[in-house]
Amino acid sequence: MTPINLPTSALQGVRVIEMGQLIAGPFAGKTLADFGAEVIKIEAPGSGDPLRNWRLIQDGTSVWWQVQSRNKRSIALDLRSAEGQDIARQLIKEADVLIENFRPGTLEGWGMGYEQLSEINPGLVMLRISGYGQTGPYRDLPGFGAIGEAMGGLRHLTGEPGRVPVRCGISIGDTLAALHGTIGVLMALYHRQAHGGRGQVIDVALHEAVFNVMESLIPEYSAFGAVREAAGSALPGIAPSNAYRCEDGYVLVAGNGDSIFKRLMSTIGRDDLGNDPALGDNAGRVKRVAEIDAAIEAWTSQRRVADVLEALNAARVPVGKVYTARDIAEDPHYRARDMLLTQRTRDGHEVQVPGIVPKLMGTPGSLRTPAPKLGDDTDAVLREIGLTEEQIAALRARKVVA
């Protein structure tokens, strides 16, 4: 059998222009970059992407930036100037993918809508992420991930019953939009290769990305008029699956498989429940979920987390503790699967960053270059599109680039 010579990276040779900022667009760019795409990030001179200054700062730069912009190149370019837009068009002309998460209509106002860009680059794949999408009555409203989570139905389900809805602690709406956008880009690139070389637009709305993962929310309302409500740490309609108090913390137990439930009840000394025919399937357990949860917590509350984990793992019952950042950083399984990588920043610091997901066995992703400082690659990128040193100096003097 003739061996297949694979490229070193799955997306080697794919060029991406990233115009997005903050989370949704740049996370899509990060994902493509991790798997070998050349990602050129366009930032505003002077300020750059606001994410550079979000949360905890080390030597003037957010450590979050080190994750979000690894494997990318940065060009500081004023897109509000005609000259800057001309340079952007030259970059896009040679690109496979354009990522943008401006408010709908922004690029059209600059004469850079998809119709204009596809004239100079018919194969261009354009990922557009916005609050409400490129069409519809809400398209012009400002939208962030938190609003998408609310409109998508997620926020109504988070938190304890009867209390203020809470966020999950991260910008999950933005990240879900980015992942849907990344999938769209890969499908569009495949279609372009297989069916004639034409590109297309991928239109991702934040609330739609959230709504897409809301499971049975709408079918249940459609069929039964049921409006699903917040349920704290429980999983409504699935039993038992909840968080249970221990002497020194909480564990999550998912004992909702029929045979798993029997093993769980045997382990906690409640064979009376495990052998009860009425609890032999999920429907029966859901009817008596309060009784089952009370029995489990009566057992866990008298034990330490470590002891509960040991006992239930031995019984092959899915169980886990609630990890903090310290737990993750010290966990041997994370390290064994290369999910904690050490990255040296361009300021010379070493910082641990998340590993690369998913894991491709033939063409794995890699951490090739640290996140750039603002405009680190401006001159190099401009030379690559044919500008001379004199032209670059003149653009810098006019503050078109930096």
Automatic annotation (TrEMBL):
Enzyme type, top EC level: transferase
Protein keywords: Transferase
GO molecular function: transferase activity
EC nos: 2.8.3.-
Domain of life assignment: Bacteria
Region (Disordered): 356-375
Any Pfam family matching the protein: CoA_transf_3
Stored InterPro entries: CoA-transferase_III_domain (IPR050483), CoA-Trfase_fam_III (IPR003673), CoA-Trfase_III_dom3_sf (IPR044855), CoA-Trfase_III_dom_1_sf (IPR023606)
Family matches, as SUPFAM superfamilies: CoA-transferase family III (CaiB/BaiF)
Name of the protein: CoA transferase
Organism field: Azohydromonas lata
Taxonomy of the source species: Bacteria, Pseudomonadati, Pseudomonadota, Betaproteobacteria, Burkholderiales
